[in-house]
Amino acid sequence: MSTKGFIFDLDGVIVDTAKYHYLAWQQLAQELGISFTETQNEELKGVSRVRSLEKILAWGGVSLTEEEFNRQLQKKNKEYLTYIETMSEDELLPDVKRVLYFLKEQQQPLALGSASKNARLILHKTGLFELFDAIVDGTNVTKAKPSPEVFMVAAEQLGMAPENCIVFEDSLAGIQAANTAKMMSIGVGNSNILQQANRVIATFTELPNPELEALIHH
Ligand code: BG6
Ligand code: MG
Questions:
Q1: Which end of the chain is more exposed for a tag (fewer CB within 10 A), N or C?
Q2: Which residue lies with its CA nearest to atom 6 of ligand 1?
Q3: Which CATH class is domain 5-16+91-217?
Q4: pLDDT tens digits, 84-115
């Protein structure tokens, strides 16, 4: 039997939370008198909460005391959680459930590889928590994507060699992390932004079950 380690990013791959992160950061930036564009927002995708705030402050040329910095981080997360509170299965991205259940049925090991500290909460809310054999998130790793750390730890927990792992990512930083880890990288989203991926799909609807089988036997 052929086996691959399938590693999924969370925000923007499994659930459409990238928009909520964007809204929460926009609100915070506005209050600090900073504006940033949607293009700049691409640079925040996949990046840890701390690193995101550092980037936004740098764009605005604003510096904060450590205390204020931490206060802003908490505020951002509080705002973000107001969107997550009411989250259910309905917010899973197209065909995510089919893909996860098919791979599970094929006895493929599944891992989550996310920068988020809210990952477990979101997996519970959307009913996916039990599906994953390993969950590596912002509470387990210290180095933010594009560091390959999160995916390397996920592969290790699955007991799979990196070259036998396949990563699904919506962020450029995440694609770079997967490439550095020598894993197959599949971008989910815009092919212009995710050019460095081994392959890009707009959504999982472009990966029917026979194609998933092909990935397993690749
Ligand atoms: C990533 C998101 O998955 O997690 C980033 O793409 C976010 O936008 C990061 O900043 C950290 O998430 P959280 O939920 O711990 O603030
Ligand atoms: Mg993401």
A1: N
A2: 46
A3: alpha beta
A4: 999 999 999 999 999 999 999 999 999 999 99
Of residues 5, 9, 60, the one with CA closest to residue 183 = 5
Residues with a catalytic annotation lie at 9, 11
* Ligand 1 binding pocket includes 15 (Cβ within 6 Å): no
- Ligand 1 touching residue 11 (CB < 6 A): yes
Q: Does domain 18-84 have CATH number 1.10.150.240?
A: yes
| b/e 171-206 (16+ beta carbons within 10 angstroms → b) | bbbbbbbbbbbebbbbbbbeeebbeebeebbeebee
Domain boundaries, the chain: 5-16+91-217, 18-84
